[in-house]
């Protein structure tokens, strides 16, 4: 089975989830550490897939003196069907505090991918004084712009409560929804592979991604019901009506620099669903970066190392690096 590939140390475990520190030498405590938050829907190692296709390793090596942490949500067990959305948000906050304490930093930068981008934005709104920079990597914010995936879970014909009545949402249930977005995607994928099968590097990249894509995990039932009902069906986040951990989530409380990254061929998180974040935050320092590829390919594809990874490292250097600190104190 696949898994994280970079040398790392476990910092904290809560339930099935673990916070890892990507190993590097000579960490500078004056640089805000970076916390990587993947989706709960898929395995975390999509952010650390293999050599040359690891966002975690690329950012850590680009700024070796910045501490980089990776949250792995783990694999939910049957009893995790009762894990609520509030508990997920609170767990993220505990991991963020642990990363800050471990790095000896007052604030940290947060990068959330897919659903992790949604969760990271919620975290930044609830804890604005603890976040130095926020990166939403293909994470939906305005769910009225969620495209076909939003149509599939429309309240007119989709009852999330009924779906979770038997427990966690199983991997096959989740996967079938994504397959419905591109019914011919599987055939096209193998046809494309046939053209590159003679190349060893292409074969390695293809099978690494295939292993990750097949390594599906359940979604905690109670959290799923809120995620679908409150965010997808009610679009409560951008309406300012979403509540988590007893507080109303007001995106306007986000005052730090914000980077929204969208993939040009993303069928899971359309561009407008993610860029809406900049329309609702209080920060004036917002930027949109469009990168080639689909929802997953943009992160681990052949062009990610040339486009996505350097862009993230450069932006962090500008807004959460020594130059930014010097400007702030001038």
In the CATH hierarchy, the architecture is 3-Layer(aba) Sandwich
Mind telling me the C-alpha Rg?
Answer: 19 Å
How far the N terminus sits from the C terminus, by CA atoms, comes to 51 Å
Q: Which whole number gives the mean pLDDT?
A: 87
Count of domains: 1
Number of helices: 15
Quaternary status: single chain
CATH class: Alpha Beta
Written description of the protein model:
With 330 residues, the chain is an alpha/beta fold. It has a single domain (8-325), classed as Rossmann fold (3-Layer(aba) Sandwich). The chain contains 15 helices and 10 strands. The chain has helices spanning 55-62, 85-103, 115-126, 147-152, 160-163, 171-181, 185-196, 200-214, 221-233, 236-239, 271-275, 277-280, 297-300, 308-319, 322-329; strands at residues 8-14, 17-22, 34-37, 68-72, 108-113, 131-137, 243-244, 247-248, 258-263, 286-291. The strands form 2 sheets. An 8-stranded mixed sheet has the order 1-2-4-3-5-6-9-10, sandwiched between helices. Strands 7-8 form a two-stranded antiparallel ribbon. The protein is globular. It starts with 7 loop residues before the first strand and ends with a helix. Mean pLDDT is 87; it is low at 183-195 and 323-330.
